[in-house]
Amino acid sequence: MQRPKAISGAVAGSPRLGRPAPVRRLLDSGQRQVLALAGQLRRSWRRSLQLRVITGTLVISAVVVAVLGFFLMGQIAGGLLANARTAALTQTADGLAVAQSGLTCRDRTAAARPR
Q1: Domain that holds residue 41
Q2: Rounded to whole angstroms, how far apart are CA atoms 91 and 89?
């Protein structure tokens, strides 16, 4: 039994093993572009006070809006739940009063009838 031959330039277990050359070139070129963009962003970040101030302001604003949103959502949900509970209790009390008044009327008419 023969061992399979390794592809030239590739080490067994490497991510490039078995990928066609055009795919490798495309991945390498994409990786170079991402690294170049990251380098440009890093240089811009270090050199531009305006970029840092605007970015910081946007991040803080987003955090404040998120916190206020969660707070308001909790308050509104709590208010809606309290209103629904109050309405349910009121409806139940009204239904109980109607049922009791119906029973009271029947008891009075039954007591008034001669047997």
Answers
A1: 21-112
A2: 5
